[in-house]
UniProtKB/TrEMBL annotation:
Keywords: Ligase. It comes from the Bacteria. GO terms for molecular function: ligase activity. InterPro entries: Sigma-G_inhibitor_Gin (IPR019700). The lineage of its organism: Bacteria, Bacillati, Bacillota, Bacilli, Bacillales. This is Carnitine-CoA ligase. It comes from Insulibacter thermoxylanivorax.
Length: 60
C-alpha cells in the first residue's frame, strides 16, 4: 500500500497534527471548524463532500 503524505483531506495543506479517519488526515483546524459548523450552513456540505472522498477511496 502506498503511504500518503500528511495532507489534510479537507483543506489539502500539509499538517503535522490532526485526527486520522481511515488513514486520512483531518487537521486540528478543520476538525474544530467542522465541530463548530452548523448543519444548516453551506460550509457543512463542503465538509460532507470532503468526507465522502474518504469513503470513495476506501471502496475503490
Ligand atoms: Zn485541514
Amino acid at each position: 500500500m502506498e503511504q500518503n503524505a500528511e495532507v489534510c483531506i479537507i483543506c489539502g495543506r500539509d499538517q503535522q497534527t490532526g485526527i486520522l479517519i481511515c488513514d486520512q488526515l483531518i487537521c486540528e483546524q478543520c476538525e474544530q471548524e467542522m465541530i463548530r459548523t452548523d448543519v444548516k450552513e453551506e460550509k457543512y456540505h463542503f465538509f460532507v463532500d470532503q468526507m465522502k472522498k474518504i469513503w470513495y477511496k476506501m471502496t475503490s
